[in-house]
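Sample entry (154 residues):
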Amino acid sequence: MIFLVKGFLPSPTADFLVIFEALLVGLSFLILGRGGATYVELVNGLLQTPVKLSLAPFSLLLALFFGVQVDAYASLLRVRNSEARAGRLVATLSLSSATTGVVAYYATAVVEKLVPSDLSIALTILIFGVVSGAAAAYLAARIWNGNLRSRFQG
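Predicted structure, serialized as tokens:
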């Protein structure tokens, strides 16, 4: 699903759709447990690599970076699938989305010089990452607690 939403769009547009990615990665952690987000992002990165060949190493590494962060923060903040507390999931996905966005921007602007380096762009990415991550986490917690938990924990 992440690949279908973000895979064929150019980089700035695809990056603003991080809410879909964060929602699905948050749910994957809740469904699969520790390592679930990394697994989903590995598949996402492998699917995006052939489509975005010019950014192939970045796409795969940043996808893995995002997944590993979600798994790590969720474990540290004790996000549990027995009752997904929205606050903990919001913190997890906000931190992960913001950090990945800033690292991706730094890598493409400063290291590779593919986009212009500007502090206002970096701040916009940081703010957008926090807001998107928070919204996605809130939705993921509501979906999990409302419908999916009973189906997967039967």
